[in-house]
Design a protein that fits this description.
By secondary structure, this protein is α+β, with helices and mostly antiparallel strands. The chain has five helices and eleven strands, in the order E-H-E-H-E-E-E-H-E-E-E-E-E-H-E-H.
Length: 197
């Protein structure tokens, strides 16, 4: 298990050019082509995962299946994002198409949350950058949709994530970013946007 530091930065759509100039100036280079990412988030019938995340409780987790819709050969990854007193870490396992379909139909049993069923589908375009052992991604064209329902809503904001190992101090890079650091969860944000509409 390897812990990681994760910081999130909020930028408005009209600040994107300024943000890209900042990356260029700091010699933070693109490492992959942009791609569409889709995640299906799971929760129990009381939405306990949502409320735990909203309140910042620890320990807590998020459960999702992530995949890349544009890939010719689909790969599915079952992921647990865990926040504990010791830090944050992610566990992921590749799963087959049959297992993917099984989980969508019957849900996932979790020791903390019980039976969790698919609840929210989040889609976005992600771009990937890196410098040394710091990885920078930004997500745009974010959409939220309740699972198997016609409730699609767009989020026009852009979320930047800075990720590195627990041994690396991100403070100097954060201070240089001329943008606002935030606490943000796509899962919580999606639920809130859809509930308010």
């Amino acid at each position: 298990m390897s812990f990681r530091i994760e910081k999130k930065i909020f930028i408005k759509k009209e600040q994107l050019i300024e943000f890209k100039k900042f990356l260029f100036k700091k010699n933070i280079k693109q490492i992959y082509k942009p791609r569409i990412v889709e995640s299906i988030y799971f929760d129990n019938c009381d939405k306990k995962i949502y409320f735990d995340s909203l309140e910042g409780l620890s320990p807590r987790k998020k459960i999702r299946i992530r995949y890349y819709p544009e890939k010719k050969i689909k790969e599915y990854s079952l992921e647990y994002k865990i926040s504990s007193v010791e830090g944050r870490f992610k566990k992921n396992n590749k799963i087959s198409l049959d297992h993917f379909n099984y989980l969508l139909n019957f849900g996932i049993f979790d020791n903390r949350y019980g039976i969790c069923k698919p609840n929210l589908v989040v889609s976005y375009i992600r771009e990937y950058f890196a410098k040394d052992d710091v990885r920078v991604t930004y997500d745009a064209n974010i959409t939220y949709n309740l699972f198997k329902k016609n409730t699609k809503k767009n989020d026009h904001n852009i979320i930047v994530e800075l990720k590195t190992s627990i041994n690396k101090n991100l403070d100097h890079l954060i201070k240089e970013f001329p943008f606002q650091e935030i606490r943000f969860s796509k899962y919580c944000n999606g639920i809130e946007i859809l509930q308010n509409n």
